[in-house]
Write a structure and sequence with these properties.
Belongs to the autoinducer-2 exporter (AI-2E) (TC 2.A.86) family. Keywords: Membrane, Transmembrane, Transmembrane helix. InterPro entries: AI-2E-like. It is a multi-pass membrane protein. The protein folds into three domains: about 140 residues, no CATH class; about 90 residues; about 50 residues. The chain is about 85% helix and about 0% strand. The protein is built from 15 helices and no strands. The longest helix is centred in the last third of the chain and has 43 residues.
Length: about 375
Amino acid sequence: MALPVRQQVTYWGVAMGALVVVLWGLGDVILPFLVGGAIAYFLDPLADRLERAGASRAVATATIAFIATSAFVVIGLAILPTLVRQLTGLVETAPEIAARLQAFLTTHFPSLMEPGSATNEALAGVGNAIKARGAELAQTLLSSAMSVVNALVFIVVVPVVAFYMLLDWDNMVAKVDALLPRDHAPTIRELARQIDKVLSGFVRGQISVCLILATFYGVALMAAGLTFGLLAGAVAGMLTFIPYVGALVGGVLAIGLALYQFWGEWFSIGIVAGIFAVGQFLEGNIITPRLVGSSVGLHPLWLIFALSAFGTLFGFVGMLVAVPLAAMIGVLVRFALDHYREGRLYRGLEWQDEDTPSTLSDATETPEDEA
């Protein structure tokens, strides 16, 4: 006998509450496991392809781990030192940039830079703060992404978790499937397939878009002669994951640096602006439509809200789980709306009219018909 609906809602509510408590209280502890699980999830299709090609699961997992480790080492040796050097150089150059901006505004907009004006005091404060805390700011920027856990533990635990979860992924999915409530198993499987479709279509595709744009912007800006081109390109490409933010932040950063470096050389500044114009054209018309598609079910505004809300509530861990939870909530909302449109509350008189004819025909039978 199935449980009453009220009891089922209670149990599921308790489970969701427990999940929220775990994320809130153990976010720093479970972060490496969340990251490792996410890596295993996104690499599972590749492991399945290698298995279909004849490799065992262990061989497929070991092959993927070797390729990923090699790529990480190459990136670490070839790109990260340049990024760190450019970031440090940008922080050290920031006071000079602020001073030049202050001089430019004083020359062309003297009313804004009168002694005691808000603009003058703000620029002076920014310059003094950067001068006084430039080294500390650089160190904070370099370490902030890893501040939630010890960097060494994170680097060691994440690959181990990802390896073992990828190795045993199919078995874990089968065990979870075996524990589903029998009455609701088909519905839960269908919802899980839809969530997986959204995640695989959006996240895998969007990560590819970010990497392609980061490479394009970084190489193109460095070829244009921009001193901090690789850093600006990496920022613009990685922030592309958040709709509109990547192009806005990266474009403002790159064009601002171009104005500082190439002031008076308008052709060079135009090249930097043109690089971002070309990048946005490619991203909007070619790269994203082919790699992500237009029907993954994650509206840009919904994604921005999810990242902001979960990031505020749960910090860095919240931002990691924001996209999966946003996809899950979106699928569940569409599922609920479909059932609502099929129900009596939505259909109202239409539902009554469909049942009325048979009732009326029964009620209008005459005694002669019965005879």
